[in-house]
Amino acid sequence: MISDRLRRIKPSGVRRIFDLARQMKDPINLSIGEPDFDIPGPLKEEGIEWIRRGFNKYTPTQGIPELREKIAHHLKKKGVQFDEVMVTAGVTGGLLLASLALINPGDEVVIPDPYFVMYEYQVLLMGGVPVFVDTYPDFRLREEALAGALSKRTKFIVINSPNNPTGAVYPEEDLAGVARMARERDLLVLSDDIYDNFVFDQPSCPCLGQIYERTITFGGFSKGWAMTGWRLGYVAGPREIIQQMITLQQYTFSSVSSFAQKAAVKALDFNVDHYIDGYKRKRDLIYEGLKEKYRVQKPGGAFYIFPEVPGGNGEAFVEKAIEQNLFIIPGTVFSKKNTHVRISFAATEERLLRGIEVLNRIG
User: 37 vs 40, 72, 181, 278, CA distance in Å?
Assistant: First the structure.
C-alpha cells in the first residue's frame, strides 16, 4: 500500500526528542534548532500591514519580483555567482526541488558527515545513494577524503557552512579544495548557507558560490530573522537548473507565502548584528563551560556545539541527560557515528547555565 520509496525512510530523531520535551514540565531544552528570539517587531508589522492591505492571494511561482531582485542584490554584494533566483518554501523546500530536478535512481550524492538529516533522506526518496565523507575530529573538509568518495556516478556534493550540527565554518582553503575537485569533474555543488548570518570570529562567512560557478546556493529567513514558521527561502544558481525547479514548484508547492515575501524584502535591509553578538556570548559561555570535561571543537557559527561524550555512546548519554530533565540530540541523528551529541545554544543564558551544570555533573 505504501510506496517503495518510503521503505528506507524513518521518522526524525529530532522530532522524537521534541515530543518528549513537550511532555515534561519546565525541561532544560537545548535541542531546538531555531532562534530563541521572535521575529523583529518591524518585520512582523510589515507582514501584518500587507495582510491588512489584502496581499493574501497566490503569488508568482518563482516569487514576487521585488523579493527576487532584493535577493539578487544581496547575493551580488556577497560575491555569490548565479544566473537566476527563485523563492522557495524554506531551504528545505528548495532542497526538495533541487533533488527532484537533479537526482536519477542510482546517482550518488557526496555529503560531509556530520550533516543535516534531511540531506540523506531526500537523496533516498529520489532513489539516489548518499555517500558520506568523514570530517571528524575537527570537522574539516579534507581533499583526500572527498576525492575518495567521488565516482563516475557522483551527481553533486552538498556543503553546509556554518554547519548543522557542528557549528563549523569551513575555512576558505577547504572550500577551495571542494571547488577544485568539482571543477575538474564538472560537478555541481549544493551550498546550504541558511546560517550565514551566524558567524562569530570573522566579518562574514566564506561560501562556495563565491568561488565556483556551478554552485546552487540556498538561503533563507528562518534563522537570521527568526521566520521559521513563515517558511521562506531562496535558491540561486545556473539558469537552466533554476528554470526546471520553478517548473517543479508549479506542481508541488504552487507558490510561497504572500505576506512573508513582502516582509522578507524589508528583512534584507534589517540589521541583526546585535542578535548575532548575543549568540557569540552564548557560544563562548557554553564552550568555556564544557571544554574542561569534554572533547569539543569551538563552533565558529550557527548555534550548535557538538561535543564528544565520555564513553563514546551518544544515544546512551542522551537518555542519561533526559533523566536529569535535559534535552539534547544524539549525534546519530546527524551522523553515521554515535560518539557525539548536538547541543543548541539558542536559549536563554540562564537555561544554558542550568544545562552546563547537568552536563558537567553527568559527564
Answer: 8, 27, 40, 10
pLDDT band for position 231 (cuts 50, 70, 90) = very high
CB 314 within 8 A of CB 236: no
Cβ 86 vs Cβ 234: under 8 Å? yes
Question: Can you give the pTM of this predicted structure?
Answer: 0.94
Q: In the chain, what are the domains?
A: 4-39+272-362 (3.90.1150.10), 57-267 (3.40.640.10)
How far apart, in whole angstroms, are the C-alpha atoms of residue 257 and residue 174?
Answer: 36
Residue 229 has a CB neighbour count (10 Å cut-off) of: 11
Q: Which amino acid is at 206?
A: P
Distance CA 20, CA 28 (A): 12
Angle between helices 258-267 and 41-52 (to 10 degrees): 140
Name the one residue in this structure whose C-alpha cell is 570535561: 293
Rounded Cα distance between 331 and 338, Å, is 6
Q: Which residue has the cell 555567482?
A: 81
Q: What is the pLDDT of residues 163-219, one digit of tens each?
A: 999 999 999 999 999 999 999 999 999 999 999 999 999 999 999 999 999 999 999
Give 94's Cβ-side CA count (13 Å radius): 28
Per the CB < 8 A criterion, the answer to whether 299 and 305 are in contact is: yes
Question: Strands 215-220, 28-29: parallel, antiparallel or unpaired by DSSP?
Answer: unpaired
Distance CA 125, CA 190 (A): 17
- List, in sequence order, every residue forming a beta bridge with 295; answer none if it has no partner: 308
Alpha-helical (H) ranges within the chain are: 13-23, 41-52, 65-78, 90-102, 117-125, 143-149, 172-185, 239-251, 258-267, 273-290, 314-323, 349-362
Listed residue (172, 165, 213) closest to 189, CA to CA: 213
Identify the sign of the CA torsion 165, 92, 207, 172.
positive
Name the residue type at position 191.
S
CB–CB of 12/342 below 8 Å?
Answer: no
